[in-house]
């Protein structure tokens, strides 16, 4: 097996130099880094991460122990943990027990031989002392999820009792008498809580109601599902996870000659249609994320506060609004900009049509065209809803939009989703409320963190500029880094450009100018309340901006989408853009390589826009239905999942 000594000899460097390169320390010249990496590849050397961890006197491994990885609430808990912990440099080791105590005890012994930082377990044991007696880990960093054990010092779960109660409340409206419960074993606290919440609510309404409860283990779940159909099946069956609901569907299809029961099930927070199953949504993944956040931020061994996460409950009302459906066919015309949020909204409009019977036609126009339309709205009276930029709201609100008060209290109450500052900037003009914030945004710096963290690139930058490569804190640093990554100026750059600029639209150029102008201490509103530029700072800003254009990629695009696409393609090291125009990139393949930071000098402009109703529209009730739909939690989530930026 090749050693560090072999690499040092082949590369012609010292043992310490090899160690510095392999451990990604930046105090080595670029020539020596290349020589060491070439030698390491030649001899087939791989760094022993475990030995490195032991030498450093600690481990960055966190073990997760689950009954299995296929059941939704275990799988999502793991994803929530792993997504955050892995990004912070921790190794997450997964173990499964199949709910067998002997398996779990053997896993504990295996973990005890390592120097783990923490353990998260969904345990089938009875007493937490089995962990505390064998693991040399702070008891507070041994976290038990879902199932409470005797003597457990750190136990975190969701509100399964409330879930049972609210499912029973939903069934109260169905005039059912006999229901079935299909759950994990009673000995687990999450099952007991769910059962108690359901039974108390269900029987409190009518003590004569019947409950058939079949507790089961993972190995028997499919077989036990058929037991509900050996006689007259229940009117409804409630399952503790979506996998059991699928077993019930199979058992009903294959083993039931009678009427199919209604099926209700606990499910993940993510909305995924499951035919014939009414899903009650729980935040399993968020629980994992918040446990991970506590582990990352804990500075002592004090017992953490209980994590309190709201159940999402039942999502989406699929019933057609009878009042609206009885009216003649109606179409809402919406005027909007091209953006990721618009693209996402377009995909979801069939749901609004299904729910209300109202068609929606999106009229998508460039930024400048919308300003022209708003200036002459009397010639465009067919528009019902207008997406208006926050910068234009003070100018156009009174002349183009109806006050929200004309749309009813339910629409007005939508403003409660937002902070007072957002409402003031995106909704209110001279004390009147005209619009609901749709995609409020702010400028941010996005950069290729994989390139910024590359040891060779960092050393190359240090040798040229005598300082560390890091996200720019000032525009002087931004321009320096842009020159460094410009391959035309630096042939060794791993990317073609350091940055880019869109020059085909005066609004974009003005935005770029103001960002730099404010960074120099400039202001538009002077002390005498007049609006004007400081001539000295303005001239300096123009000089800096023009100089920057000499080293970045110049684009003739009239909007930021071409800049974002160039960054997505891997050609550009940095981009400054509004978040609402960049959000879809977070769903692309480049997402894991993207870092973000405040804009240089931290004087970001805010952007995005709001939705209001045209003063000429005669469809107030239809517009109100659209507002209630698009600003609902369910649709807001779907817009984000589809790459949009929505409701901050």
From TrEMBL:
Q: Which CDD domains match?
A: HTH_LacI
Keywords of this protein's UniProt record, alphabetized?
Answer: DNA-binding, Transcription, Transcription regulation
Q: Where is the HTH cro/C1-type domain?
A: 3-39
Protease among keywords: no
Pfam families tied to this protein: LacI, Peripla_BP_1, SBP_bac_1
In its UniProt record, a GO molecular function of this protein is: DNA-binding transcription factor activity
Q: Where is the HTH lacI-type domain?
A: 2-56
- Matching SMART domains: HTH_LACI
Gene Ontology terms, cellular component aspect?
cell envelope
Q: Which Gene3D superfamilies match?
A: 3.40.50.2300, lambda repressor-like DNA-binding domains, Periplasmic binding protein-like II
Q: What is this protein called?
A: Catabolite repressor/activator
- UniProt lists the gene as fruR_3
């Amino acid at each position: 097996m090749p050693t560090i000594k072999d690499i040092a000899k082949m590369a012609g460097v010292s043992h310490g130099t090899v160690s510095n390169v392999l451990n990604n320390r930046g105090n080595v010249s670029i020539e020596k880094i290349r020589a060491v990496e070439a030698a390491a590849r030649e001899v087939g050397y791989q760094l022993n991460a475990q030995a490195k961890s032991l030498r450093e006197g600690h481990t960055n491994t966190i073990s997760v122990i689950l009954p299995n990885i296929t059941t939704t609430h275990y799988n999502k808990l793991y994803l929530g943990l792993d997504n955050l912990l892995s990004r912070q440099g921790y190794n997450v080791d997964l173990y499964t027990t199949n709910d067998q105590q002997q398996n779990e005890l053997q896993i504990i012994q295996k973990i005890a031989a390592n120097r783990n930082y923490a353990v998260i377990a969904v345990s089938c044991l009875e007493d937490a002392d089995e962990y505390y007696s064998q693991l040399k880990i702070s008891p507070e960093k041994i976290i038990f999820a879902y199932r409470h054990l005797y003597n457990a010092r750190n136990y975190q779960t969701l509100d399964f009792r409330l879930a049972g109660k609210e499912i029973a409340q939903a069934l109260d409206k169905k005039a059912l008498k006999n229901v079935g419960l299909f759950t994990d074993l009673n000995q687990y606290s999450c099952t007991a809580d769910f059962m108690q919440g359901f039974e108390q609510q269900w029987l409190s309404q009518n003590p004569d109601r019947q409950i058939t409860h079949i507790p089961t283990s993972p190995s028997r779940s499919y077989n036990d599902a058929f037991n509900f159909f050996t006689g007259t099946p229940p009117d409804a069956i409630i399952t503790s996870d979506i996998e059991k609901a699928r077993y019930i569907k199979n058992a009903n299809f294959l083993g039931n000659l009678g009427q199919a029961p209604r099926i209700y099930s606990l499910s993940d927070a993510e909305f995924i249609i499951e035919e014939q199953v009414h899903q009650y949504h729980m935040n399993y993944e968020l629980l994992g994320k918040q446990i991970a956040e506590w582990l990352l931020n804990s500075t002592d061994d004090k017992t953490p506060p209980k994590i309190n996460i709201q159940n999402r409950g039942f999502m989406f009302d699929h019933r057609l609004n009878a009042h609206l459906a009885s009216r003649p066919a109606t179409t809402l015309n919406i005027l909007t900009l091209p953006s990721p949020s618009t693209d996402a909204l377009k995909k979801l409009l069939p749901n609004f049509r299904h729910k209300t019977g109202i068609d929606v036609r999106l009229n998508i126009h460039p930024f400048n065209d919308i300003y022209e339309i708003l200036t002459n709205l009397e010639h465009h009276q067919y528009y019902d809803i207008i997406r208006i930029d926050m910068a234009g709201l003070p100018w156009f609100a009174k002349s183009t939009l109806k006050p929200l008060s004309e749309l009813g209290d339910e629409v007005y109450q939508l403003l409660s989703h937002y902070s007072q500052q957002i409402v003031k900037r995106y909704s209110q003009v001279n004390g009147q409320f005209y619009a609901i914030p749709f995609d409020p945004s702010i400028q941010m710096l996005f950069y290729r963190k994989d390139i910024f963290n590359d040891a060779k690139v960092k050393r190359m930058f240090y040798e040229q500029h005598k300082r560390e490569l890091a996200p720019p804190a000032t525009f002087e640093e931004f321009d320096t880094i842009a020159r460094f990554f410009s391959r035309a100026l630096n042939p060794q750059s791993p990317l073609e450009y350091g940055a880019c600029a869109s020059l085909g639209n005066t609004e974009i150029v003005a935005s770029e100018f103001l960002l730099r102008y404010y960074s120099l201490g400039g202001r538009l509103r002077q002390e005498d309340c007049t609006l004007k530029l400081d001539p000295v700072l303005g001239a300096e800003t123009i000089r800096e901006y023009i100089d920057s254009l000499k080293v970045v990629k110049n684009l003739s695009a009239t909007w930021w989408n071409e800049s974002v696409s160039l960054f997505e393609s891997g050609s550009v090291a940095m981009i400054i853009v509004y978040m609402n125009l960049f959000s879809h990139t977070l769903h692309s393949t480049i997402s894991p390589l993207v870092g973000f930071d405040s804009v240089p000098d931290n004087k970001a402009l805010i952007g995005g826009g709001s939705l209001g109703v045209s003063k000429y529209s005669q469809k107030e009730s239809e517009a109100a239905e659209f507002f209630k739909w698009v600003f609902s939690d369910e649709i807001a989530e779907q817009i984000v999942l589809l790459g949009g930026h929505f409701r901050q």
